[in-house]
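Quick one: structure tokens for this chain, please?
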Amino acid sequence: MTTKVFEVAAEKEALVEDTGLTFSFDKKGRVMKVHPPKSGQIALLMARLGRHSSFNDKMAGVIDFFVGILDEADYDYVVHRLLDPQDDLGIEEVTQVMEWLMEEWTGRPTK
């Protein structure tokens, strides 16, 4: 059996330019840097948001995408906060950040 090997082009970068976007969930909170998404990340998000996906699958897709564009330490920080029953951070705040990021990356405001 022959295995076809596909090369991943090192030149292929994120879909959007790295603008150094940062955010925080609250005024005294940690400042986190967002890395622009790669095409595979966008494809996975779109698949999770498909019309045949349940609401829970869609929300999981948004969170997976969101934490995937963070630094590793920030990934751990956000996941810990989302899983902490004493922390009020939830999908509403993640969605607000995602809407802002899409506006920044596309140059188009969302509703």
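The mean pLDDT is 84.
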